[in-house]
Design a protein that fits this description.
With 208 residues, this protein is an alpha+beta fold. It is built from five helices and seven strands; from the N terminus they run αββαβββαββαα. Strand 6 and strand 7 form a beta hairpin. It is elongated.
């Protein structure tokens, strides 16, 4: 084979390798784009950290919770201002990396919004820990509903207590959920001690 033929063969090999490289690069770029679109579409606030708790990437919804800008990528999470009424975010993230366990907590922002925070180890394809991922799921509506239900229950209990007639409320298993003092006095019971007990065992089984 002449030098010219060898050079032509080498050029062909280089062109083939270059085309394969370009194809892989395009595939990687498309995968990264698809992943970004998927994360943005979830409407969940997500932060990806490396093993030194440096910010690798985040979804736009994080900005309502932690004041992150595109230029914050690569910065320590500790250097970023937070709107959370929670002082243990960094401690929890480090604990996840140290113990390879998850952490979950319901936390509140300074605006009164509630989020369920989850921190999990982030594993690479070859099963190495390469950081942590933090997610914040908005549960404000659920917390507000819980508060309304608790207020309704307290109001119902106060009405029941104000009734002069004996009154008792049972759950689905016929256990005492709440009773008023008139009920307890009439049957020789102590109102605070019978909560949660089956109706059938009260007063020596008289209700059985």
């Amino acid at each position: 084979m002449t030098n010219k033929e060898e050079l032509q063969s080498l050029n062909e090999e280089l062109m083939t390798l270059n085309m394969q490289y370009l194809a892989k690069t395009e595939e990687f770029s498309q995968t990264a784009s698809d992943m970004k679109n998927l994360l943005d579409a979830t409407e969940i606030a997500i932060i990806f950290l490396d093993n030194d708790l440096l910010i690798k990437r985040f979804t736009p919804y994080v900005r309502d919770i932690i004041s992150l800008l595109p230029g914050d990528v690569g910065r320590p999470l500790a250097h970023v201002a937070s709107n959370l009424r929670y002082e243990h975010l960094l401690r929890d993230a480090q604990r996840v990396l140290d113990r390879l366990t998850s952490v979950e907590a319901n936390i509140q922002t300074t605006r009164g919004e509630w989020h369920t925070m989850r921190i999990l180890p982030c594993r690479s394809l070859d099963n190495y820990i390469n950081g942590a991922v933090i997610t914040f799921t908005d549960v404000t509506a659920l917390k507000q509903l819980e508060a309304q239900l608790q207020e309704t229950a307290r109001f119902a209990d106060s009405l029941q207590e104000a009734m002069p007639q004996p009154s008792v409320a049972l759950d689905a298993q016929l256990r005492v959920r709440v009773s008023n003092h008139a009920f307890a006095e009439d049957f020789g019971l102590v109102a605070n001690e019978i909560r949660g007990k089956p109706l059938a065992v009260l007063s020596g089984g008289a209700w059985n």
